[in-house]
Amino acid sequence: VTAGKLMIRGEACIKFLYSTAGETESLETMEYSLPFSQVLDCEGVTDDCLCDVKLSVASAEAQIKNDYSGDKTFFDTQIKIFADAEACRSTQVTFVSDAFSRKYDMNLEAKQKTLDSLAEVVSDTFVHKAELSADENTVSKVLDVWSEMGNVSAEASDGNVKFKGKYSLCVLAVNAENKPFYFERLLNFEYTKQCTSSGDLKCEASVGAGAVSYRITGSGIETKTELRLSAELSRSLSVKSISAATADETKPVQRDAAALCLYFAAAGESLWNIAREYRTSLQSIRSENGLSGDAVENKGMLLIPM
Fold first, then answer.
1. What are the start-end ranges of the H helices in the chain?
2. pLDDT at 290 over 80
């Protein structure tokens, strides 16, 4: 992270399923990892921000080409990657929760507002094992295994994030009669990851499937799928904020003719509430009684300037 810039690095994994040229055609697979890096413009981001970047493949194109001599064949590949970057910085927010006038009654309008704070980003990769049955078919050869979708939810409690979700596995295989066939399965998974945040947390989780390995077992296959999990942990605070305030000049405050009033306050009582009750200045109550905080320190008598 630099001022206004995000540098991202990663790998794009691409797999080819192709038919070989020759007397006996057969389906084969090849897999490559292509490293990439990119600088993203992100206005306002600084190195004290908590950043979360999600990447997804927008499109992938491949063409078979030959070199100048015509002896070698290669894949000319273009991959477009979509990046969704979020940068959060903790800051202080000031809002008005109450108001009063020393001269007139007030008409106040309030709205409920929700303030969100990103506490932590938790991410991890784990390998999920599964056994896939091919039903009536017998798998003699696997041509390819891949995942097309996945969804996940998460909950945070007791210092842990509990992920729970599903993902699909699609299998292209050859049966005992040497005929290709296809089947797919939807698999459930659960995973727990420790976190450092506590309290009432809201989780926004995502999952992506990476490499899939397999071995043939009986009529089906046993798979190991790399699942990449991520969760944003945030806190929400609901506050009442004054959105409009007008003085009703037809209702002037009836003021006491005395210069001072005596008030017996309880320990911890709000000085603001006392000032509002007597329609006087909060700062004048502090000055008159040698107080510095927002609440009464010890129960006792207060001098209230009028």
1. 271-278, 282-289
2. yes
User: Each residue of 169-225: pLDDT tens digit?
Assistant: 999 998 888 888 999 999 999 999 999 998 889 999 999 898 899 999 877 899 999
Structural domain harbouring 263: 255-306
Nearest Cα to Cα of residue 208 among 228, 224, 188 = 228
DSSP 118-156: EEEEEEEEEEEEEEE--TT---SEEEEEE---EEEEEEE
Residues 222 and 264 in one domain: no
Would you give the distance in Å from CA 85 to the centre of its chain? 11
Residue 78 predicted with pLDDT over 80: yes
Q: How far apart are CA 219 and CA 80, in angstroms?
A: 38
Helix axes 271-278, 282-289, angle to 10 degrees: 110
203 and 291 inside one domain = no
Claim to verify: residue 67 and residue 121 sit in the same structural domain: no
Q: Are residues 114 and 220 in the same domain?
A: yes
What confidence tens digit (pLDDT) does each residue in 139-159 have?
Answer: 999 999 999 888 999 999 989
Same domain for 201 and 295, yes or no, is no
Rounded distance, CA 172 to CA 61, Å?
21
Specify whether the CB–CB gap between 40 and 83 falls below 8 A.
yes
260: domain CATH number is: 3.10.350.10
For the record, the structure tokens of 104 come out as 């007139």
Residue 304: closest CA among 261, 258, 253: 261
Q: What is this structure's pTM?
A: 0.71
Q: Is the pLDDT of residue 21 over 80?
A: no
Contact 165, 171 (CB under 8 A): no
